[in-house]
Amino acid sequence: MTVKEIFDRMDYGPAPESAAEAMAWLAGKGGRFGCFIDGAFAAPGTTFESRNPATGEVLAQVTQATQADVDAAVKAARKAQPKWEKLGGHGRARILYAIARMMQKQARLLAVLETLDNGKPIRESRDIDVPLAVRHFYYHAGMAQLMEAELPDRQALGVCGQIVPWNFPLLMLAWKIAPALAMGNTVVLKPAEYTSLTALLFADLCHQAGVPKGVINIVTGDGAVGEMIVQAQVDKIAFTGSTAVGRRIREATAGRGLGLTLELGGKSPYIVFDDADIDSAVEGLVDAIWFNQGQVCCAGSRLLVQEGMAERFYAKLRARMDGLRIGDPLDKCIDVGAIVDPVQLATITGMVADNPEGTHYRAPCALPAKGAFYPPTLITGLSPASPLMQEEIFGPVLVAMTFRTPAEAVELANNTRYGLAATLWTENINLALDVAPKLAAGVVWVNATNLFDAAAPFGGVRESGFGREGGWAGLSAYTRPRGTPRALRPTLPFDGNGAPEAALDRTAKLYIGGKQARPDGGYSRPVHGPRGALLGHASLANRKDIRNAVEAANAARGWARTTGHNRAQILFYIAENLSARAAEFASRINDLQGGKGGAAEVEACIRRLFTWAAWADKLDGRATGVPLRGVALAMREPVGTIAILCPDEAPLLGLVSTVAPAIALGNRVVAVASDPFPLAATDFYQVLDTSDLPAGVVNILTGSHAELGPVLAAHLDIDAVWSFSSAHLSEIIEKRSAGNLKRTWVNNGLARDWAGPEGEGAAFRDAATEVKTVWIPYGE
Amino acid sequence: MQIEKTDKAVTTAAGLPQLHEPRNEVMPLDLRWVAAVQANTSAIERRAATLPGRRSVKKEWQAAWLCKAISLIDLTTLAGDDTEGRVRRLCAKARQPVAPEILRALGMEGLTTGAVCVYHDMVATAVDALRGSGLPVAAVSTGFPAGLSPFPLRIAEIGESVAAGAREIDIVITRRHVLQGNWQALYDEMREMRAACGEAHIKAILATGELGTLRNVARASLVCMMAGADFIKTSTGKESVNATLPVTLTMIRAIRDYHARTGIKVGYKPAGGISKAKDALVYLSLVKDELGDRWLQPDLLRFGASSLLGDIERQLEHHVTGAYSAGWRHAMA
Prior knowledge:
- The structure holds two protein chains of two kinds.
- Chain A is an alpha/beta fold.
- Chain A contains 25 helices and 32 strands.
- Chain A has a ten-stranded mixed sheet with strand order 14-15-16-13-12-17-18-32-26-25.
- Chain B has a single domain, classed as Aldolase class I (TIM Barrel, Alpha-Beta Barrel), CATH 3.20.20.
- Chain B is built from 13 helices and eight strands.
- In chain B, helix 11 links the parallel strand 6 and strand 7.
- In chain B, helix 3 packs across helix 12, helix 7 packs parallel to helix 9 and helix 10 packs parallel to helix 11.
- The termini of chain B are far apart.
- At the A-B interface, helix 1, helix 6 and helix 11 of A face helix 2, helix 3, helix 11 and helix 12 of B.
């Protein structure tokens, strides 16, 4: 084409980035890769092809790791870990800094290789993936430096097994490896089989950056290798990928005492109110759903538009789609690249073809003749009942519907099993700041979308997984408290056949929705003192009582929106009322357990209630220092409804120590009292009754932990289960929790000193809250 | 790989302004529309900041796009020390903006700038110097750059410039009306100036660097279009901040909205601050992506620039020879 012809047509021409350097690197490695274990590349084993999805060309042969490879990697990581941790924060900071520098020096090589392997536009790998990955290492070099001063009570977990997806191969690797290394862990990481190459290049760069051998190990292969890592002798599993696989990992790790973080799927709402800057909101969608071909777990894939302006919005959106350029990912002038693999392309194609509902609009861009490409697509006129409105498509397909009011927008937004991210557009600060906290999502972007930074915690709620990556919050996923754990011995109820000591029978019932309730099953069990005296009867709750208690708890969701001051007042009041009846509770505890520790336990309960009353209005979030004119608020939100299997060994203090932090921080609770000594808890509901605590905020059941625990863990409307029971329930609770991927906090058969500092503190605060990151860019 | 949507625009004989589009006629002031306009500064800035990374033109395409940029330049001199000699030199450069051998090598013989832009006093000289070239003369007017001379004099100034042969009048608005939210006053002023222009096309200079917010820029753009502006223009070049990408995005989105509602295409002229060839390419891609190819013609897009041409000349010589060029190799204006 001549200059004059182009002058007349004003087309964009080809603007290819050269692949030569990346191809030369692959060739330099012989085009075949073994795993990177103990500081060196092993000889390639059985290999599979890694292809460029844009062309179908084979880029390299990558090893399908064997059990022996995984074992060797874990062994190398295990051997290297103590020395790596002992290197100290500053020593590790120097290495992480060296990694960051090395990545910057090879930034273009990393970007080009990523684009070749994954199919994402070079603009994205060059301007987003690689810089964010580098930033993650710089940021965590700083965290390593600060660890000893700022986290003196934390230590490394040990060896971390990490499994990352194919949509952001290098970036997800950075999100996993940087915090793990900073905190003194060593890692065995598996990249996705479609996209192993940048992980292997990264390993090569780490070698040059002076990372000690064994600290970073990369094993390649398909899901079978992932399963081997999950089954290996590691101390933590970190996984980013699909909800289905996340669920399997939850089950497979149950009861093993492992740390687990899951960053899973999403169907994130993108809400546009009628006072938004519409053009900017339309442009935002380009970055929400056509970024990385929509293969983004937090993609704004569910468009909710206020009804009155919907048609105008859709018209502008379709016009914008017409201008999207799809094609060669290495072209610097391309908006949408290739789908990662033909298999994935077939999935997207099938999902859209199977759901003809709604109005389908495909961007009228010509697709390249070969390679895995799918056109940007908008489907309007759907309803929440449409499968495409609920299921993650993981492709460049946007589904849309309308709403009438802000309240309805929130309701529709939250009408999903997922809860990863949400976007909202409005020029009204009142509306924005009202809606953001109401969205069930770990990340909310106000008038922006898909903003990421190492300082801003990222992660989901509901079936989008748990755990946070980035910021201070992300470090708890890679550390544990210092100290030597002790085993918890089972506490068993006393037998006996004595008569009641008190003349008048006092009937202990269940406490549900602020009312005393007889157990649904109509059964009770006698409770005896250590010398066999009959102290009373405790109701035996069953699954229907759990159902009722959970419904009562969920009806009390207004508790989450009360002020911290208000909650503090109520906790102080509970303490005051307990104090007034201290003698009675002390003797009840003595009767239940024997000995004379009752008075001290009641006193400890009063102190603990004060502690949590104190925290109720003091658990601050953070305004994180993200590189943007604006703020990213890492807010602490209540988890929701928490089921608690109370400690058996401390009948009142165990209840108070677990329930008080939960309600202080805005949660509702279904507590199952100490199994052997339930009567202190049933006395306690009388204290609650007289302390202005709204009905349903605390519900107390009595009965068998072994029977009730699994039902609570499986309940789909409970957000978290904590188990401090002395019965061996950790495994079954973690396994059953996979149903809705609720958060679990189980004791793994280990003891906790309820009277000491272990009985309160940061662990409780962290378990009772989720970090929600709200990004608010500003400027006028 | 051919992946482009085909250009639907009617490609006109390039280089000649004021072709086939119906002129923007005055419409009633719609204050509800004005009030509903939003401009989210932070989002607009992000779009503007990432655009250079999203669009790239190379090789022949780059050369062609740079030639296009030249064809859109209002080659400008607006200095207190302008003389007839200086203006004649400028006009000569407008007629032959690039060395003939370079244009020959590019197959772009006959390329000129879009217009020449001068103060009223120099209009007659410029008209004379450009006679036979088809190039229009644009005059800055209405008490340029502050626009605070007596209103009747500002209106009269337009008439004088039109009488002297200016085919385009670049007026300045009263910034006060925008800052005070007095859209009626802005509309009335603009309408009267438009009437005074008669057949000459009118470019409304918003002086965006003095309007405080992008929201004001968007609203002022809209009001000026309602009052009949043929072009909206960022700045006089005399404010401390002149054309920027965020301001451009805001203004061209207003143009797009106006087109969507009225069917009328209004032109856009960024002025001041565009001095590098690379900047011009970014502006072209922004206009292409946001407004469409039809806006890449001189009847709908101009660059108000003086030093931009020199940088483009060096880039074009580099394209032709493969060697980086030097400023002194190219004829000065």
